[in-house]
Amino acid sequence: MNSVELTYPDSIGELLQDYQPCDASMELVSKGDEFLRNHDLDGAEQSYCRALETFEGNWDALAGLEYVESLRKPESVRFNWGENAVTREHLDRRHHNAVLNESEFEQGRRKLKSQPKMSLVELTTRCNFDCFHCSRTYFHCQEVDMTPELLSRIEQEVLPLVAFVTVTGFGEQTISKSYPRLMSSLVKQDIIPHFSTNTSTLNAQHIAALVRYDANVILSVDGTSRSTFEKIRHGGRWQKLVNSLFLIRRIRSVHKGTGKFRITFVAMRMNIHELPDMI
To answer: Which residues have C-beta within 8 Å of that of residue 193, sequence separation ≥ 6?
Structure first.
């Protein structure tokens, strides 16, 4: 595969203004997507390369090539979360708990026989960013990881009856060693993963897994220009962020739009002027 590197514009506004690949180039990108849907990596690679030859700055084609390259490599065990293994009996127990929980709420009971329908799981308080606005900058937070023993209890006592799990907290949850284990448990119990991420771990294989398992992901951005993004999100790199966004678009296109990705933007005096570009 030919190695092609492109430098992204310094803002989303510039990108939207300057990025105008011709129709012929984008048609080749679409053909590349179709080849991937048919598991033809060679055909996809050739089509994406032709798209780049037709329009040199086609970032969608570059993202397609990066995805092809990732598919040629052995799948990382970190992003192989297995398959849904939930049983009818399991679903009936979950439904019964949900009905009982709603009934007890309506009755105003303080002592419940039911378990919650939703749960928040925090795997780690560690983070690989040092964001300007984060509460970690003024609130002391001990950096610890959830123990395997506690995670086992959650898998056995909490997950069987909940329908919704948010994986979040003070840290970047995707850097935890237990992240693949928890995601696998959620998938096997037919619970759609929901979490926020600073995007630092979003490579092609990771994004493909999130799309494949129909995850609901919030991307923390807080800036639409290189200078603002890297000033607020210490540790983040603009080039990596924009590359991840193009990979998400390409991989969702290949898999027909599964997986939900949203962006969160914490408005402050130093970035509020960029909010229109985010919208």
So the answer is: 165, 167, 183, 186, 187, 210, 213, 215, 216, 217
Half-sphere exposure of 89 (CA within 13 A, CB side): 0
Q: What is the mean pLDDT of the chain?
A: 93
CA 99 to chain centre: 31
List strand residue ranges (DSSP E) for 98-157, in order: 118-121, 130-131
- Give whole-number Cα distances, 88 to 79, 85, 204, in Å: 27, 10, 34
Note the helical H segments in 119-235.
148-153, 179-188, 204-212, 226-232
Task: Please tell me what DSSP assigns to residue 118.
Answer: E
Could you report the per-residue pLDDT of 141-153, keeping only the tens digit for each? 789 999 999 999 9
| Tokens at 223, concatenated | 């800036």
127 three-state secondary structure: coil
Q: Is residue 47 a contact partner of residue 32, using CB atoms and an 8 Å limit?
A: yes
Quick one: three-class SS letters along 58-75? Answer: CHHHHHHHHHHHHHHCCC
The total number of residues shown for the chain amounts to 279
Distance from C-alpha of 6 to C-alpha of 68, rounded to nearest angstrom: 17
Cα-to-chain-centroid distance, residue 178: 16
- Cβ atoms 252, 259 nearer than 8 A: yes
Share of the chain above pLDDT 90, in %: 84
- Residue range 90-139, pLDDT digits in tens: 999 999 999 999 999 999 999 999 999 999 999 999 999 998 888 877 77
pLDDT in tens, 189-214: 999 889 999 999 999 999 999 999 99
Confidence grade of residue 54 (pLDDT, cut at 50, 70, 90): very high
Identify whether the C-beta of residue 97 lies closer than 8 Å to the C-beta of residue 115: yes
